[in-house]
TrEMBL record:
Pfam families: NMT1. The keyword Lyase does not apply. Residues 1-24 form the signal peptide. InterPro entries: NMT1/THI5, SsuA/THI5. This is ABC transporter substrate-binding protein. The lineage of its organism: Bacteria, Pseudomonadati, Pseudomonadota, Alphaproteobacteria, Hyphomicrobiales. The keyword DNA-binding does not apply.
Length: 331
């Protein structure tokens, strides 16, 4: 074969190779448990920074209105993988035997907290006795409130509890309409800014510091998705975990990614919420156990708290049955 003929064949082979379609990305639907925001930054980072694309997954985000809805959609196969409070998953396993499994811890501390103002005289959970406490009727914190009060030696009726719209909680606190509000630590910056605008300083009393030790927001997946497409699940979870680490190292850029994909959000607001949320992801628990893992003892403690809070039989669930540890490096 002459050199010119060989060159012609090689050129033709190269042309065929270049025209061959690239392997299509594997599609999956990611289920949110609530509205977009800083605490949901990793999935937007995964998309905007190209980590999902690099993993070969084409992700569609489905909006959510709570952990229960997220779990229901995953169980029904409407979504493949997403976010939920692991306590809600535990309860759903007991009550409905949903085919959904937790694959990665996101918040290894619960986000629940009391907020009050400096000068209120409230320095610990026990100090809320006899105080006016406002809460949203929709927050999962209400389920754990009796346990937190009991841990502090208080009766469930030791506070005057009022339900209010979530958006009204901050104004109620700074205006003196209530002594305490129940909110999440993911909103620490927002409530702190509202207090400072009124010339006050916010005091946060996280329930985790008062003894409510449990896992919270977690990455959960449809069992069918995990069984039928384990390689897709593994590639996505690795990309999501990388996105969590990216958000920690680059919070401003991560916030910009959220704002780029959710234009109604302002990057500076997202960054505050993200930094608040990161404290629930990276802390002493993460130091003792690798990012995303479920420590058996802490998982068992979580179930103990969930079952007590929701009136479920402690023996109704082995918490080890609702987690899969083979998708995240165990450290």
């Amino acid at each position: 074969m002459t050199k010119s003929a060989l060159a012609f064949l090689l050129a033709g082979a190269a042309l065929i190779f270049n025209l061959a379609p690239a392997r299509a990305a594997d599609a999956l639907t990611f289920q949110l448990d609530w509205l977009p925001g800083g605490d949901k930054a990793p999935i937007y980072v995964c998309l905007h920074q190209g980590f999902c694309e690099e993993a070969g997954v084409d992700v569609t985000i489905a909006g959510g209105r709570g952990s229960t809805e997220a779990i229901t959609r995953l169980a029904a196969g409407a979504s493949d993988i997403g976010i939920s409070d692991i306590g809600a998953l535990m309860a759903a396993r007991v009550n409905e035997d949903v085919p959904v499994t937790a694959v990665m811890s996101i918040f290894n501390k619960g986000p629940h907290a009391f907020y009050t103002l400096e000068g209120s005289g409230i320095q610990g959970v026990a100090d809320v006795e006899g105080k006016r406490v406002a809460t949203s009727p929709f927050t999962s914190s209400n389920v754990y409130l009796p346990l937190v009060l009991e841990d502090a030696g208080l009766a469930p009726d030791s506070v005057s509890l009022t339900n209010a719209d979530p958006g009204a909680l901050g104004p109620m606190l700074v205006s003196g309409s209530t002594d305490v509000i129940i909110a999440w630590m993911t909103d620490l910056t927002r409530y702190g800014n509202q207090a400072r605008e009124a010339g006050r300083e916010l005091v946060a009393l996280p329930w985790s510091a008062a003894g409510l030790e449990l896992y919270s927001a977690s990455l959960i997946a449809s069992d069918r998705f995990l069984e039928e497409r384990p390689d897709v699940a593994r590639r996505f979870i690795e990309a999501f975990r990388h996105s969590v680490e990216f958000a920690r190292e680059n919070p401003r850029e991560a916030a910009a990614s959220v704002a780029a994909l959710v234009p109604e959000l302002q990057a500076e607001d997202v960054e505050g919420s993200l930094n608040d949320a990161l404290a629930l992801v990276f802390n002493e628990v993460t130091q003792d156990h690798a990012l995303g893992t479920f420590d058996p003892a802490r998982l068992a403690e979580t179930w103990q708290r969930v079952s007590a809070a929701q009136g479920l039989e402690a023996g109704a669930l082995d918490p080890e049955e609702i987690v899969a540890r083979d998708f995240v490096p165990q450290g």
